[in-house]
Fold this protein.
Amino acid sequence: MMQESNLTNLPCTAAEFGDLSADLLKMGKQVRFRARGYSMTPLVRDMDVLLVQPVRTSLIRIGDIILCSIQPDRVVVHRVIRRRSDLHGFYFMVQGDRAAQPDGWIQQSQVLGRVAEVERGELHLDMHSPAARGIALFAVLSSRRPTGRGWFTRIAGGWIKRLPVFSKYLN
Amino acid sequence: MLSETRYERNPDFIYRKIVDESVLVPIHHDVADMDCIYTLNGMGAFLWERLAQPATQAELEAAVLVEYDADLEVLVTDLEKFLVEMTTIGALRKG
């Protein structure tokens, strides 16, 4: 009548995963799950474990990685590269670190939570750490290059990956 | 003779229906671990819903017999297994 499982084994759609995560985050719980896909490599890789925390949208900063619903049936973990607000609330432009184009602007109601930690085996990266903020700064600057992510990303990214403080997370 | 032990849900297990699956998500230190969740079949889900109020094994058996056309001997065996497993993982507590 009962069986141990994990969410990746269930025929769970992105919308259902989003609903379940949103429910738990609204209850004030943190959510730990395995990331799927490659849009945030090299920082977040397929099958890395992410810890997502509930967050007030007013506290989300440029460079943060958030769990958000960018379409009714598409939930992603992408980085905030721009932010604005008006009388109706906050808006965030999100983009995968590896993606050529942003996903577009999302409203605060589409934000489910903020990534607090990335786990890969024994490696744990606290997203508030200087290393994570440094990587975030580079990712945001890279996304704003008018010519896209070509030569700038290759040269600067290669240099950053060699720095000891970043190399263990990016190589 | 059936035990008078009452079973109650552990509130640190969150129950949700996903597609055709009923899942229990354990919460440890305020963290919902989606990598270690439990799926319940139809009767398991029925029992979990019935356990919204604490119940004894006899009360659960009676509730199942009203809802399902079950063989009593098989039901007793399955129910005992269910209660042991659910207690072992911490989803149910003995009151």
Summary: The CA atoms of residues 65 and 72 of chain B lie 8 Å apart. Residues 72-89 of chain B form the longest helix (18 residues). Chain B has one domain: 6-94.
